[in-house]
Specification:
The complex is a heterodimer. By secondary structure, chain A is mostly helical. Chain A is 56% helix and 0% strand. Chain A is globular, with a radius of gyration of 11 Å. Chain B has a 9-stranded mixed sheet with strand order 2-1-11-10-12-13-14-15-16. The chains are: A mainly alpha, B alpha/beta.
């Protein structure tokens, strides 16, 4: 899976949980939870869905490493078993 | 059962707890004596802002740190009591210069920025009423509260204002001024730059005579049948804040205290702003939401000694397989209290194993203004129990009879409604503009909490559930009526029934059952549209997380949706009494 595909998958899952968000509002280097008003519960749901699709579990201690779209894409591409 | 109880050994405390003999404290306690803890205003009366900030700034604590603010991007700012006195005086002068005074309702809508804390105390100084809103509310809950609370001014940020308030400004003719925390210049005479106004304001402000019964804070709480109600509190509430800070939070002068609650909710004002400062204690504020590594780091780096947090956060910490006391230096931490929803016994025990200390649960509500029932540092903990009433608080289990009279349930372990003897200082004084509803909260000499509980043989109270349909999600109350009303504004929705669906992490999640108007199909696309609609209108804190289409919502013969039945069906429980169900 390419970086672009991973990014697209993440965006899809954000939009799944928060369908009111415009894709253009997802700024790559902005904190996902704060800038898009995704609360902790919904953020967990996004990570659970991504785990099901990509097979990468983000442990609670790594949440700071997936705070932005950019960081999350990087994290998944690093941990994805190709 | 007794084996599971956590015993305390008095000789193990490095710092002697304020409450040692529970029964003696209860017997000797007098509310009148609490006044001795306060200075009073030179010109007469008592004002929370003076007791929390100014009197410390005028004395030996002037250079002591009052507030440590930790920003999302790693910033750290600290304010002494003298800094806070000057800043809050500036803010009070800004309000006064704009024509706002005693009793005027001033709303706040902000994330946890230092200005929010400065505004809170500044509003009280000016004898205006602080009305906090949660920054994750959407436009609809914000509008409802601004209207119902007769908002004259709003303090917020440019982004929150543009997104959530500007589109509704025309519907708020009473709103005279919007103070934007981060705007560099005024937009016009109504939308002002707070920074500019603060620059030009004097840092000297003399608080005018304040009566203990003057309105101080207006919080909103959710109803089952109507829109949110404004819960009126007065300056005298500080008697409870001081007392609970002493007995429950066990505050001592050298403590570093961290309450993780947002001031949009009552815990965040009573215990995130007022209580630590009444005790002259350093108060930590973190701008960001929960993050396990960040939170442990704050406990370590700021040397937090007393920590007041919530079950949702504790359950998140429990998900991590780690030994926090080995990874972090938590040696300063000596007391953990939790509130928001009942703390499950496993979480109390997890504290003992992983944090090397139990977590103490306590109970109170927006209406009670302060902690009423608690597990205490020096006392035995019964995991799963909310604890015992504080000195000065009389609790009981009652049954409301059909004729409106009350029978006290004296039989132990028997479930009933948790009730309190009215008269404690932080008791709410009114539901704003709703005397009838206020009167209904009391019966037979008791305040009725709406929570079901029972009492054991040693006077510990145990939470059972709510007697109504109010939803508790992530520690916040959500009124089903407010959610249903908004969903029904969507063109496709005929009717909606909203319940709290049990959830391991956040207690309950908001779930809506929706029936559609003729011509609309229950598609996945429509479900997503409704989820988005809810988020946009209500905000993430209130919007339904789940939506299920159903063409037949169970209703009474009079046409009222039976949420209780929806919930029973959702949980696969017996449906109970369905005699009023329509055919």
């Amino acid at each position: 899976m390419t970086q672009e595909q991973i990014k697209k998958t993440i965006i899809d899952q954000i939009l799944e949980i928060a369908p009111d968000i415009d894709e253009n509002d997802i700024i790559p280097d902005k904190n996902i939870q704060r800038s898009l008003e995704i609360d902790s519960f919904d953020f967990l749901k996004i990570l659970t869905a991504l785990n099901e699709i990509l097979g990468v579990e983000v442990p609670e201690r790594d949440y700071a490493k997936v705070d932005t779209l950019e960081h999350m894409t990087h994290y998944f591409s690093q941990n994805l078993v190709q | 059962m007794k084996k599971k109880w956590i015993e305390k050994k008095l000789n193990t405390f490095v710092i002697q707890p304020n409450l040692i003999d529970y029964f003696k404290e209860r017997t000797t306690f007098e509310w009148g004596k609490v006044a001795e803890q306060f200075d009073g205003l030179p010109c007469g009366g008592f004002n929370i802002a003076h007791e929390a900030i100014d009197r410390h700034a005028n004395g030996p604590l002037a250079d002591k740190t009052a507030l440590v603010w930790l920003g999302a991007n790693g910033e750290r700012k600290s304010f002494t009591f003298l800094d806070m006195k000057k800043q809050t005086s500036k803010f009070a002068n800004v309000l006064s210069s704009l024509g706002f005074g005693k009793g005027d309702r001033i709303f706040t809508l902000s994330t946890r920025l230092p200005q929010l804390y400065i505004a809170a105390i500044g509003i009280l100084k000016n004898r205006s009423v602080m009305c906090p809103l949660f920054s994750q509310f959407g436009p609809e809950p914000i509008l409802q509260r601004l209207l119902r609370g007769d908002a004259k001014a709003l303090i917020t940020t440019q982004a929150l204002f543009d997104k959530k308030v500007r589109p509704m400004l025309e519907q708020l003719p009473q709103l005279q001024t919007v103070l934007l925390i981060d705007a560099k210049e005024d937009e016009n005479n109504q939308i002002r730059s707070l920074t500019r106004l603060m620059e030009n304001a004097s840092d000297v402000y003399e608080i005018l005579a304040t009566d203990l019964e003057d309105m101080s804070i207006l919080h909103f709480t959710s109803g089952t049948t109507g829109m949110p109600k404004g819960v009126v509190h007065v300056h005298k509430a500080m008697y409870n804040h001081w007392t609970s800070g002493y007995y429950v939070l066990d505050l001592h002068p050298d403590d570093i205290y961290w309450c993780t609650a947002d001031p949009g909710w009552v815990t965040g004002t009573s215990y995130g702003i007022i209580t630590p400062w009444l005790h002259g204690v350093t108060n930590i504020v973190d701008e960001t939401e929960f993050d396990a590594v960040r939170w442990y780091s704050i406990l370590q780096n700021e040397k937090v000694s007393v920590w007041y947090t919530a079950p949702t956060a504790i359950r998140r910490l429990m998900r991590i397989d780690s030994e926090p006391t080995k990874e972090y230096d938590l040696s300063h931490l000596r007391l953990i209290q939790s509130v928001g929803e009942p703390l499950n016994p496993e979480a109390v025990v997890w504290g003992v194993e992983k944090l090397k200390m139990p977590i103490h649960d306590n109970w109170w509500q927006t209406e009670t203004g302060g902690i009423m029932i608690s597990n205490f540092l020096s006392q035995q903990i019964r995991p799963g129990s909310m604890g015992r009433p504080l000195p000065g608080i009389e609790a009981g289990i009652v049954h409301l009879n059909e004729d409106g009279s009350i029978t006290e349930v004296t039989e132990l372990l028997k479930e009933g409604e948790l009730a309190l003897k009215p008269g404690w200082p932080s008791m709410f004084r009114a539901y704003l503009h709703n005397d009838e509803k206020y009167a209904k909260s009391f019966a037979g000499g008791w305040y009725l909490s709406g929570d079901l509980a029972y009492k054991d043989s040693d006077g510990y109270y145990w939470f059972v559930g709510r007697s109504d349909d109010i939803i508790k999600t992530s520690g916040h109350m959500v009124g089903p009526f407010e959610v249903e009303s908004t969903l029904m504004e969507h063109p496709s929705v005929a009717e909606a029934g909203v319940i709290g669906k049990p959830d391991e992490m956040i207690g309950q999640l908001v779930k809506a059952f929706v029936s559609l108007k003729t011509g609309f199909e229950p598609t996945e696309e429509l479900r997503r549209e409704l989820i988005g609609f809810g988020r946009k209108r209500l905000g993430a804190a209130v919007a339904p997380k789940e939506i299920e289409f159903t063409q037949n919502l169970p209703k009474t013969r009079s046409g009222k949706i039976m949420r209780r039945l929806l919930k029973a069906r959702e949980m696969g429980l017996p449906e109970g009494d369905i005699s009023t169900l329509e055919d």
